[in-house]
UniProtKB/TrEMBL annotation:
Domain Carboxymuconolactone decarboxylase-like: 94-172
Naturally occurring in which organism (per UniProt): Komagataeibacter xylinus
Keywords of this entry: Antioxidant, Disulfide bond, Oxidoreductase, Peroxidase, Redox-active center
EC numbers: 1.11.1.28
Pfam families, per the entry: CMD
Disulfide linkage: 130-133
SUPFAM superfamilies noted in UniProt: AhpD-like
The UniProt record lists the keyword Disulfide bond: yes
Family that this chain belongs to: Belongs to the AhpD family.
GO molecular function: disulfide oxidoreductase activity; hydroperoxide reductase activity; peroxiredoxin activity
Protein name: Alkyl hydroperoxide reductase AhpD
Length: 175
């Protein structure tokens, strides 16, 4: 399965998503590692198996094994953190003062540059809708010297991949 098979499977009403996928796949504001990892982490966050397989097949070979593992780790750890911190943010009260007591060691030692991992975590947090996490990752990215355009690109990738997952629900994808 490839990006081309994903594009071919998209219904006519998803033409904008197809065009966005094409332009973002060739984006130059991010490094190749940042771009590939953002696509992979975002796809995993959508929980759409076909889309995840296609994007891992496309970008996995372009990433080091460590970067591919870190993109997967960003999706996994944010899958946990986004639920917890969204709860803390929305409910308020004493929860914000309490320690999370959830292991998050991968964030401190992701196996790639910290900014790349933060970028992938930002994309996943955008898909999962955790405002508290997005604010935290955006601050970390800005402190690491990333531009607003680079951060926006990662979120545009996340938005497009999320839209692709929705458009592909129930659609037969050619092999």
């Amino acid at each position: 399965m490839s990006i081309d098979s994903i594009k071919a499977a998209l219904p006519d009403y998803a033409k904008d998503l197809k065009l966005n996928l094409s332009s973002l796949a060739n984006d130059i504001t991010l490094t190749p590692q940042q771009l590939g990892g953002t696509f992979v982490a975002s796809a995993i966050a959508t929980r759409n198996t076909a889309l995840t397989h296609a994007l891992v097949a496309e970008y996995g070979p372009k990433l080091t094994p460590e970067a591919l593992e870190a993109a997967r780790a960003a999706a996994a750890i944010m899958g946990m953190n986004n639920v917890y911190y969204r709860f803390v943010h929305l409910v308020g009260g004493d929860y914000a003062k309490m320690p999370a007591r959830l292991r998050m060691n991968i964030i401190a030692r992701p196996g790639v540059e910290k900014a790349d991992f933060e970028l992938w975590s930002m994309a996943v947090s955008a898909i999962n809708g955790c405002g508290m996490c997005m604010e935290s990752h955006e601050q970390q990215l800005r402190a690491a010297g990333m531009s607003t355009e680079q951060i926006q690109t990662a979120v545009r990738i996340a938005a497009t991949v999320s839209g692709l997952a929705v458009a592909l629900e129930g659609v037969e994808i050619p092999a």
